[in-house]
Structure formats: C-alpha cells, structure tokens
Amino acid sequence: MKNLCLYILASMVLFSFNATGQAFPWHIDDSSGIVRKTNSNQAFRDHIEMSGRFISAVIHYGTNPDQSFFIRRDLVWPMLRTIPNDTHASLIRSFTTEPVKMIYINQKLIDHERVESIRLDGKVSAYSILDEKVRLVRTLFPSTDQPAYFEKYELTNTQSRPLTIEIPEININVHTLPAHGVSGSYTLGVKSAGHGTYVLQSGEKAVFFIVFSGTQAGATRLPIDADTELTKRDALLALFRQNLMLETPDSVLNTMFAFAKIRAAESIFETAGGPMHGPGGLRYYAAIWANDQAEYINPFFPFLGYDYGNASAMNAFRHFARFMNPGYHPIPSSIIAEGTDIWNGAGDRGDAAMIAYGASRFALAYGSPESARDLWPLIEWCLEFNRRKLNASGVVLSDTDELEGRFPAGDANLCTSTLYYDALNSAACLAECLGKDRDVAEGYRTQAETLRKNINRYFGANVMGFDTYRYYKGNETLRAWICIPLTAGIFERKQGTIEALFSPSLWTEDGLATEAGDKTFWDRATLYALRGVFASGETLRGLEFLRQYARRRLLGPHVPYAVEAWPEGNQRHLSAESALYCRIFTEGLFGIRPVALNSFLLTPHLPAGWNSMKLCNIKAFGDSFDIEVSRKDEKLRVLVRSIHGIAANALLDEGDTINVNLEQQNQTN
Length: 669
Fold this sequence. Notes:
Layout: H1 2-14, E1 26-30, E2 33-37, E3 44-51, E4 56-63, E5 69-81, E6 90-95, E7 104-105, E8 108-109, E9 113-120, E10 124-130, E11 134-142, E12 148-157, E13 163-167, E14 171-175, E15 186-193, E16 196-200, E17 205-216, H2 226-242, E18 245-247, H3 251-266, E19 268-271, E20 274-277, E21 288-289, H4 290-297, H5 301-304, H6 307-321, E22 334-336, E23 341-343, H7 351-366, H8 369-388, H9 414-433, H10 438-459, E24 460-463, E25 466-469, H11 484-487, H12 494-501, E26 507-508, E27 511-512, E28 521-522, H13 523-535, H14 539-555, E29 565-566, H15 575-589, E30 592-596, E31 599-602, E32 612-618, E33 625-632, E34 635-642, E35 645-652, E36 658-661
Antiparallel strand pairs: 1-2, 2-9, 3-4, 4-5, 5-6, 7-8, 7-13, 9-10, 10-11, 11-12, 12-17, 13-16, 14-15, 15-17, 18-32, 19-20, 21-22, 22-23, 24-25, 26-27, 28-29, 30-31, 31-36, 32-33, 33-34, 34-35
Helix pairs in contact: 3-14, 3-15, 4-6, 4-7, 4-15, 6-7, 6-8, 7-8, 7-9, 8-9, 9-10, 13-14, 13-15
C-alpha cells in the first residue's frame, strides 16, 4: 500500500508537467474555468470553437509579441448555404476587426495593451490593462438561438482621477453575390452597441458590445439585445454543468468532463431538416454522419438530459431511416445540406453497424417506449444488412472504415464487426423491452455469440510481438483501433491488446498514433481505448494514461477539448469527440451498460487511491439519479439513488456487476 501511494503521488507530480518537463500554461481556477496567465516574454496562439443553433465561431486568440491581444474570428452560418450545396457549403467569413485599437483615452488613441490573463469557461474572456489606466475585460460568445456572435467589452477606470473614453460606432454591412448563395444574396453585419463618449470617475465602468450577424438579404433583422444573449449563453452553460456531474478526487478529470459536456452538446444546428448535431471544424455543419452522430454522441445524449440533444439524436436516426431499402443497398455515410442530399464518397464504411450500435444503445438509455418503437425498424434493418455482409469467415465486409481510406482497412475490418456484435447484444435487450417474439432476442444473442468467436478467430493475431488483433487480413502493423473489442466486452485478448496500446509503438504524448510508426493521431481512437481499458478492469493502468491525456488536452498547448486529428485539420475541436471523453466515465469507469428502458448493468472500477467517485444528476432511463461508489474495507459500496428512492445499495468486489432497475426502488431515502 505504501508503494501504491508513492506511485500515485509521483504520477500527480509527473502529470502536472508536459513531456518536456515544463509546467502546463493553463490552470484550473474553479470548477467551471481554466486560466492562462500571459508571459511577457512569449507570444502564443490557440483556437477554440463555440456554437449556437444558427452560428458557429472558431476563435483564434492569444497574445502578440508586444502583449496586445490577438484575435481572428472564423464565423460559420450553417443555414446560409453556398453553391455548390455540398458538405462544406456553409457560409464562412473571417473577421479581424479590433475595436480596441479605435478607442481614445483622454483624446489619444490607445498606445499599448498588456494582456494579463485569458479565461475559458464556455466563453472566452481576456483581461487586459490599457495604457496603464484602464482595465479591459473582453467576453466572447455565440448566441444560443440567433445567427449572431458577440463580444462584450468592459472598461474600468483604474486611476484616481477622471478620464474620458471615446468609443467609436461600428456599422459595417457586406452583401454576398446572389449567384453564390442557394437562397441568393446574404447580408453580413458588424455592428456596435454602447458606443459613445464617457467620462469615467475612478472605478467607474463603460460597456459596449460588438455583434457579428448573418441573414438572408432582405430578411427582417430582429433586434438583438446583447445582455440578454449573454444571459442565455450562461443559462445554457449552467444547464450543462448541473446535469451529469462528475466528482472524483482528480480536478483535471472533473473539469475536462465539465468542458466536454459543453462542446458535445452546443454544436446542434436548427436546420430545415430539423435539429442536426454537427462536428464543426469549419467544414461539417447542417449534416449528420453515421460515426460522429449515430455512433459517438447519440448514445451519450440521454445521460446529459439535454432535450435538444435527444431531439437531434432522434432526428438523425429518422434521416438515416429514410434510406432503408428492400434490396439492402448501403445507407449513406452522411446526410448533408440540411437533409436535402447525401455524401457516400467512401462507399460502405460499415455505416449500418455504426447506426445499429448507436440507435440500440440510445433507445435503451433514452427510456422512451415510443421512441424505441420508432427506432426498431431501423435497428432491425441495419442488423439484417450486416448479416447479409458476413464473409465465409463470419465477419462483416465493408469497403472501408470511418477513416475513409486514409489508412488501409482491407475488405473486412475489426471496427465494423465489433460494432455489429455490440449492436446485436443491445438489440436483443431492446427486443425484449418491446415485447417481440422470444426467438428474436434469442436469435440476436446466438448471432452475437457466433460473431464473437469469429472476431477472435479471424482478427486475433500476434502483431509486432503482441498477442492482440490484426485490424484486417494481411495487417502486420499495430493499429489504434485494436482497442475496440474492449469497449464491447470482448476481453479474450485484453492483456496483449492493452500492452500494445500503451507501448512506445502506439502511445505518444498526444495519445494513440493511428498506426505504429506514423505520427498521425485521431483522438477518437484514444478515447475508445481509454474507455475499453477501464471497462476491462485495468483501472490503475487506464488512470495513468487518462490523466496524461486529460492534462495535455485541458491544460496544455491546445485547450480545452478533445480534438479530431493531426496533422489533418490542425486539431479541430470536433464536437462528438468530447462525448467520447464523457463516455470513458459513464461506460468505462462506472461501467454503465443499458439493458432495458429502465435498467442497466453497473460494473464500477474505483481506482486505487480514490476513496469515492460520483456521477450526479444522470438523466437516463426515464429518470434522474446519482451513482456513488465508495470504498468500504476491501469492497466497493455502490449506492444508486433517485428522487423516487434507492435503486441499489450493495457491497461489491472489484469487477462485480449488478443490475440496477430504476422502477424497483426502495421508497425510503
């Protein structure tokens, strides 16, 4: 025990620093924010994406060599469609307007700005001193439900005597060419509010806003109150904070979880085809994908209790269901342009397996019989599609995988078959909930059992000295996606797989390399791997690498969210990856597996050195409940409590599983 404690302490010290031994530039200031104090000797740049229902903003921010604030805004209006109306046809414009450089203090243009710190908390706030006389606070945020992005500027007189501040009016309009827009010309505006001349006594404040908006030309422009928009953004962030709260002894894990909920849930757009969750990254909007939406984020939404998120999940599945067909031709990989077109440029990526996996898990966790019945035909069709794609070895054929040919995947890959296996098990549970004939559930379970054997037989191999999986027939190099069987409860080769994942051949300071010997990384594989390692019971090992990953993403050079990839996309903050971070905890550390509309299996893994961990205000299975896992001598005390009573109160050994039924609760709290 003494050695274990020393190991944990050493790990805490180690992971406060990056790979070069330098302290990370950001620190946590409270449960909802991180702060970076600026260095007078070093400029820096970073970027972050923030979204609302009608706009997304990728903000490039930092400090210049003279310590003034740097900003460039890449603003996206997903429903202002451009021509050609394809996947990437959202109207995007960059703005470098810097109103601070137009301000006069005591009849003189501002000569110098010194940024002291920058704070992130679902908004971007920058704290500066202007000419050593005025304190400036910038607050940057998108509207929750208008096609507008806002910047609030608060200037406070720090001198003992009065001073005069002159804030210019800004009113800029740009009209795009009608031939470039699906709906003709669009009007982009940059407008100030609160401009004017102020005489500020010591300690007094002047406030003004800048709003960047985009509308169809000739559309009635609604008056937008900036203070109201800020209040709405804060209310949305508060909703995300108070639902599905993670409490562990590690503040970095907790804080990144709180941030991940924001990025995962904010990126939903009110399209003509209904609410569509979009990855973002200046490329992927007003469209849905079988991996990002159906597989990654939709199974997470019920746990967060965000109604708009659940609505977007149901809408996504209904869009995919439009393409079911009696000939069992592949469902498109992506439905684009607000639902009016499709993208299928990589052929069959295993999309039906992704959709069956996500839809069955979502239906169980959402806990709505009506929604489950709506989704059943899609799930059933996708499972049958995969059954018909089995090759002679009993694994699923597909043209490629979710990396769409960036790396080889053969004609049958490990991901597709594993997702199909998981979907069969979930669908069997759902069939029972919906009162289907007994042979339906039994048939799916039998198929799953056979497929599990085929997966181990066909993909199981010694690769680069590790007893793990080959990703496809003929694959001789370790791949990151060997992790995926662990997330589906396939543990026959877990030891060799975990050793391979965390070996120098695959693990880098940014998580898993996509392939041994290559520098490319995609966070989604790392997040799947960490979830799977915890689910397999390798808790201490998983915690070591989770903490390394979370500290780099939350406090390192590019913060505060999980990213898509590198070098492709410059580590864009794509939205669904943040949901995958949250699922490390819900499905990995806490071991929640939906098995009915009102019940789930729970296999908690409390790390050594932690006395307890909690998930509070979980909104799944038609209820709201907390899970608390604490140490009781050599066992784990598990308490599941909702407003209706206690659903579980048990002492478990590590690795034990209990079935929690939220309808069978003790009414004594």
